[in-house]
Structures are given as C-alpha cells and as structure tokens.
Amino acid sequence: MEILAPAGNLEMAYAAIDAGADAIYVGPTGWSRRTNDSESSDEEIQLMINYAKENGSEVRIVVNTFPSPIEMKAYLEKISKYHEMGAHGYIASDIGVLKYLKDNFPSSRIHVSVGSGITNALDVKFYEELGSDLIVLPYRWDDKDFQEAQKVSKIGLETFFYETTQTGKLCPGNCIMSSYLSYRESNEKEEAKNKNASANRGSKECYRVCQAAWDLNSDGKESKKAKLKHDANLMLKQLPYFMKINTEVFKISGREKPVDLIRDLVKFYRKIIDILKIDINTDLSIYEEEMAVLGSRWKNQKRKRLGTLISSTKEESIKVG
Description:
Elements: E1 2-6, H1 10-19, E2 23-26, H2 42-54, E3 58-62, H3 72-85, E4 89-92, H4 95-104, E5 109-112, H5 121-130, E6 134-136, H6 143-152, E7 156-160, H7 177-181, E8 214-216, E9 224-226, H8 239-244, E10 249-251, H9 259-278, H10 288-320
Helix pairs in contact: 1-2, 1-9, 5-6, 9-10
C-alpha cells in the first residue's frame, strides 16, 4: 500500500520522501502537461532518483502527454533515458505509449494516468490487457463502479486522496479547450515544443475552463452565473473502505502546490495509513480537526491557482483580440 506524492521541484521531492512517501512522481520538462515551474530537468530528476534510492523510495516519471508523430522520436528517446537513469516506473495516458512502455520496460510499474479518461469497467479491463500495472480510479465513481471493475479486472487500483462524490462522470485529460484559448510559447528551456505540438502540450497548461463561471443568457433576459461541480474534498473517512478493497496506491496531486503543504499532507496520510494498517477499524474522528486545517489550506491554494489561470486566460484573449 503505497503513498505516491508529487515532485514539482527538487525541494518538494526531498520533502515528500523525508515525510514518508513511498514513491514520488515527476514530470520532465515539456512532457507532462504542466508549466516549466512544475516540471524538472533531467539533472534534477537524476538527483531525485538518487535520493529516493538512498531513502528506500521510488521515482515514477510522468509522460502523460499525447505525442504527435513529429514528437514521437524525441519522446521515446526521453523515456529510454529515464529507464537508464534508474526510474522505477511511468505514468502515461496515450494507448500506444502504454503498450510500448510495458513491452520495452517490463520491470517498470506502468500507471494509467487519470488523463486517459476512464469511464467504465470495460475500460479498466482494456488497460489491464494492454499490460498496465495500475489504473487511477475516477473519484466520482461510487461503490458499485469499483466493484464492477474488480469483477472484470485484476489490475492494481490507484486512487487520489479525494472523497468520492457521486456527481456524474468526469474525464480529465480528454478536454483540449485550453489549446483553443492560448498558444503555449516555446523557449530555450523547453524541449520539442512548437506550434505543431500535441493539443495537450500546445497551451500554457490546463486553464480549468470547466471550473470558471459562465454567463448564461436567454432571450435577452438577465444573465446568470453557472459553474460545473468542483473537485472533491480531501479524503479521511473513506480511507478504510479503499484499503479494504485492496487499493495499492494512494496518490496526492499538486505538483504546483507549495512544498510545505505537500510535506504536511504526506506526513498526515503516512500517519493515518500506518494506524489503519494496525487496526482498520480505528476511529478516525479524532483526526477530523487536523484534516479540516489541511483541507482549508488545500482549497485556498486551489482557489488561488484557479484565479491565476483564469486571469492568464483573459490576458491572452485580450492579446489575441
């Protein structure tokens, strides 16, 4: 049962490992659907791999873009390089890439990224047959969805530390709206980024268009604000359930979050999971106050980032206009 923590930079990687993460995930510059400040150079990744090895942890490489034909050669060369550097696994979305990874690096743990847009149990079975080792379960699934997936597949289960919210299906990664809002400028620090790059790398990053407020107008009437439902809260009470269904990996998202927040989240969940390993029926209510503080910090950072993304989108729109 593994805690997988983000490594948006070298400091975060070290902090997460020191706090008790079993593994960290890092995105190489230009290949993980994030801006440069949340991705890492090859030199930094090598330092992370070395530090993880010294401290009994592992490193997974996030290569969850959808590479176009003109990018594929460079993309596959990068993948091979990280294997030679000592990375323990990969997180990917592209079907062809997932198959390539397992065929060429069978000892690596292959994670199906949430960006693959899993929607049902047959999808889960498909990725198992493709050779993937783990699949991220959508946090908007309910118990019946989880049970159905386990009936048809023995693939390892991975979940975010989010409460499940039964509010319909959501497929992160399949949306390319950000690419229509802003072109992602390339620079000397970015590799293989140009105007012909794949949609999931063509913009500055995801602008969370789905979470912005929209004006609804009808027949000249007064406009109304509307929003899609937001992400779930951080998980606590549901942890015993996910442990009982043999979840192999619990994942913390947030490569763009502050280092101290990620460090504190890893420490908290390390403590809770270790307690539940001893007694799965432990009363977790005594930790609700501590969870509430962390949850508040998490939401504040999310609001801050969303505001920044929306502002950036408006600025780009003005430039284009």
